[in-house]
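Suppose a colleague, Dr. K., hands you the sequence of a protein chain of 212 amino acids and asks what its three-dimensional shape might be. Before reaching for any lab equipment, you can write down a predicted structure in token form. Begin with the sequence itself:
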Amino acid sequence: MHGPSPETLYPLPGHPRAVFLKNVVTRPNILVGDYSYYDDPDGAERFEERNVLHHFDFYGDRLIIGRFVAIAAGTRFVMNGANHAMGGFSTYPFNIFANGWEKGFDISSWTGQSRGDTVVGNDVWLGMESLVMPGVTIGDGAIVAARSTLVSDVPPYAIVGGNPARVIRMRFDEATVARLLALAWWNWPADKITRHLDLIRGADIATLEAAS
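The predicted structure, expressed as tokens, is then:
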């Protein structure tokens, strides 16, 4: 056996609150890697509808989630479509109410301030009710504390928390982080991951490197 199939919708038998997320995603502007899951007792299948907000195709931004990401209930991603045009005196979105207010509106004044894709790396843990703002990149191996608001990028293997979220501490020293990023165990085939689970779950970087 080489672990669960990433094509399984409900990877925990008898517990439909967790889904392998890529199997419920339908939007082409959301990309999710194998084994990343979302846990929500109120219907994890509705992730796109309830957890990815203001995500419009014409805006062009993507939500990219890596492999082996654990996303706790209530985590939300606010995408660039939530922003208002800020180049003039008023930020009020007159144009969306039409009836003459849409005339003269330049859509580039809105889309031109996009902060780009929102990216979640591999082996990231997002705590309950985390809020990720547009254009944030969360590095591999990072941990986000519950109810944190992320407005800026998170370094790989950092533990962050708060509103706005700040680095609380690093999980490992710089040299170990560099070695882990070079190993990128999350890209190994499933059978190799299965053979070396004890090393991946352990804390001996040299032995893990020897198995790579």
